[in-house]
From TrEMBL:
Keyword Zinc: yes
The enzyme's E.C. designation: 3.5.4.5
Domain CMP/dCMP-type deaminase per the UniProt entry, residue ranges: 1-130
Record GO biological process: nucleobase-containing small molecule metabolic process; pyrimidine-containing compound metabolic process
Protein name: Cytidine deaminase
Lineage of source species: Bacteria, Bacillati, Bacillota, Bacilli, Bacillales
Species: Paenibacillus albidus
Gene: cdd
Keyword Membrane applies: no
Job description of the protein: This enzyme scavenges exogenous and endogenous cytidine and 2'-deoxycytidine for UMP synthesis.
PANTHER family: CYTIDINE DEAMINASE
Amino acid sequence: MDSAILLQEAIKARANAYIPYSRFAVGAALLDREGHIHHGCNVENAAFGPTNCAERTALFRAIADGHKAGSFKAIAVIADTDAPVSPCGVCRQVMIELCPPDMKVILGNMKGDIFETTVRELLPGAFGPVDLAQGQATE
Ligand SMILES: O=c1ccn([C@H]2C[C@H](O)[C@@H](CO)O2)c(=O)[nH]1
Ligand SMILES: [Zn+2]
């Protein structure tokens, strides 16, 4: 699928952002292997910590709908930033967990700038499921 089309879907998702505190709206569109798209927006909270980013909303709703970790094809993320939006560290860690490392991540802004990267490039040296398995005590 064309990056521009997935970004258009992210713009639609962004319209639903719940952002009473930051007023910073973010949208995400996650492509699955059947070619379906899952929308995500940021959902904020008065206690701040429970806030969920757009990227994680899209990933968690797709997992909850039965799509398997590692089966996703691409994600587009958009905000009204000067440069294409930069995913936070928590979302980078969640993408490492749930997406193929070489999966395309399309970052955009409302001016039409686009930066394409991958899950692995966004979190080099990441701690992941393999590291956890290697360090687990046997009893
Ligand atoms: O890539 C990003 C960066 C920030 N946010 C959200 C979290 C919070 O609601 C607001 C300000 O950080 O933007 C996202 O959803 N995705
Ligand atoms: Zn995030």
